[in-house]
Amino acid sequence: NAGVTQTPKFRILKIGQSMTLQCTQDMNHNYMYWYRQDPGMGLKLIYYSVGAGITDKGEVPNGYNVSRSTTEDFPLRLELAAPSQTSVYFCASSYDRSSYEQYFGPGTRLTVT
Amino acid sequence: AQKVTQAQTEISVVEKEDVTLDCVYETRDTTYYLFWYKQPPSGELVFLIRRNSFDEQNEISGRYSWNFQKSTSSFNFTITASQVVDSAVYFCALRAAGSYIPTFGRGTSLIVHP
Prior knowledge:
The complex is a heterodimer of chains A (113) and B (114).
Chain A: E1 4-7, E2 10-13, E3 19-25, E4 31-37, E5 43-51, E6 54-57, E7 64-66, E8 76-78, E9 87-94, E10 103-104, E11 108-112
Parallel strand pairs in A: 2-11
Antiparallel strand pairs in A: 1-3, 3-8, 4-5, 4-9, 5-6, 7-8, 9-10, 9-11
Chain B: E1 3-5, E2 10-14, E3 19-21, E4 24-26, E5 32-39, E6 46-52, E7 59-61, E8 64-69, E9 74-79, E10 88-96, E11 103-104, E12 108-113
């Protein structure tokens, strides 16, 4: 099992550019999540999904979009990147909401300049 | 609104010392869940424990133990006989039972010197 994989590991974007952060899990988990971690801060939930075709906003969704066409994949799209989106992005998955053990990916470090 | 406070920004200890990481929370929900995660230098978060608000039993897992006190809204984490491999940032988090959105503390950086 690879668990949760994220690509890329690092990325530098110019203001106004767009990009997609990829997230894939091979544990057949229904629930998937995107978080961001700003320096010296805890994680904040951006979006989550409870299954293929179902997504919902978290605490800080502005400037992001997601889709969930398969159980395995949960890409995060940044449109019109802004410096405020400089952060480390983590994808996570869990079997269900009651299964509180979320498995995290290694993170993507994004810098917007 | 929920809040999680980890007042200790950084703790430095020498190997084999015991160390306690504090977590104080605020919530109006009657049913909620508390978590601890470890973030080693590699960056990936690792789940350590979940505690339900209706279960105040303390828990021990090897060198790790957790003290949940609802009366003081605290969920403290103790590492006994610390080791260099325990060096990491530790996060406490809170989530209401009916919500998908957790609230994380800012984390405590633990440095264990050999």
